[in-house]
Amino acid sequence: MKALRHENGRASVVIVDPCSAAGYDLHDMETGGLGGTEATVLRVAGALTPLFDITHYQKGRTHSHVSHAGELRPFQDLSNAKRPAALIVTNRWKVAIKLRKQCPDTPIFLWLHVFPGRHNRKMGAALKAAEITVICVSHTHARELEAFLGAENAPDIRVVYNPLDDSLRPDGTPRNPDRLLFASSPHKGLAEVFRQFAALRRDLPDLTLAVADPGYLRWDTGAVPEGVVFLGSLSHSALIRQMRRSLCLFYPQTSFAETFGLVLAEANAVGTPALVHAGLGASAEILGDPDQQVDGHDPAQTLARIRAWRRTPPQVSGNPAFRLGCVAQNWAELLKRATAKCPQMSVR
């Protein structure tokens, strides 16, 4: 890659998504089917475009397009790109290592949204040697990553939360005390949630469970209990409307650990509680409220909490640290420091 310098004085920041199945843009959040990682990347990129020249290379994209989230380009175009002031790679650490060889002096960030599998234990030493900074999406995520890699092999690890839309607030929509909502891909414990819901209905037969599946992954969830309503793939605004009218986000599954859990944060931001299994992943950090946590292995505890919430719904709110304005500021500060060594590409 050749060094890139902009006449407008803004640093060039390249985001690389080597995981996406198809190209995506901001409008896809309103048509449905977009994963949380892609939505997060778009929101952050859009918020940073006034400060940086953003180019986003996406696996599966077939044509270039200029968007409010930057210039969106096919992944294969990366091989002919000029060297930016900073590089951000989502999830694939080996791609970050490969780019380090091409850009020996460029600040590189690995934006990690997942817990790495056991076969990736060597990634820590490789990233540390390559001086690649890892961005985790919660403090829980960062602690578990460092424990997984080992302190002696851990690279520089920072935390920047996933962003909530600044406009998400309660709006007085009446809540249906009989309506629960599951709003995640089915691989995130939906089979267990079905069993938990079926147990609830034995005591509370009027309950319904609405399931909003983004549709990007097929998954065997077993038998579907009575009272389940499938909503299909919803736009972001439609999903938020479902959150507003539901008693709670019903997510006490005990197997899938979230690194952040964006739907949990969004539910709280619009005043809807989320019921989760205590101690699993980052859920406790994101919700910050013991009343929204139960032992998912104990049906009696789940039943008691739902009964209590039907009588008196808890008062919950969004965490200001998750708001897009705050998250974008954190990213901007990271990138400004990283690109400060490029005087002709400094941020205005």
Task: Please provide a written account of the structure.
The chain is globular. It is built from ten helices and 14 strands. The protein has an eight-stranded mixed beta sheet. Strands 11-10-9-12-13-14 form a six-stranded parallel beta sheet, sandwiched between helices. It has helices spanning 36-48, 93-102, 123-129, 139-149, 190-201, 236-245, 262-269, 283-287, 299-311, 324-339; strands spanning 12-17, 53-58, 65-67, 70-74, 86-90, 108-111, 133-136, 157-159, 176-182, 208-212, 228-232, 246-251, 274-277, 293-294. It has two domains: 12-163 and 323-345, 3-Layer(aba) Sandwich (Rossmann fold), CATH 3.40.50.2000; 176-319, Rossmann fold, CATH 3.40.50. α1 packs across α10. The model is unreliable at 1-5 and 343-348 (pLDDT under 50). The protein is an alpha/beta fold. Helix content is 30%, strand content 19%.
Q: Spatial order of the strands in the main sheet?
A: 3-4-2-1-5-6-7-8
N-to-C CA distance: 24 Å
> Number of helical runs?
10
CATH-scheme architecture of the largest domain: 3-Layer(aba) Sandwich
Number of domains: 2
The outline comes out as globular
The Cα radius of gyration reads 21 Å
What is the number of E strands? 14
Q: Which bin fits the share of residues in helices? A: 25-40%
Sequence of secondary-structure elements: EHEEEEHEHEHEEHEEHEHEHEHH
- Runs in which pLDDT lies below 50 for 5 or more consecutive residues are 1-5, 343-348
CATH C-level category of the largest domain: Alpha Beta
The CATH topology of the largest domain:
Rossmann fold
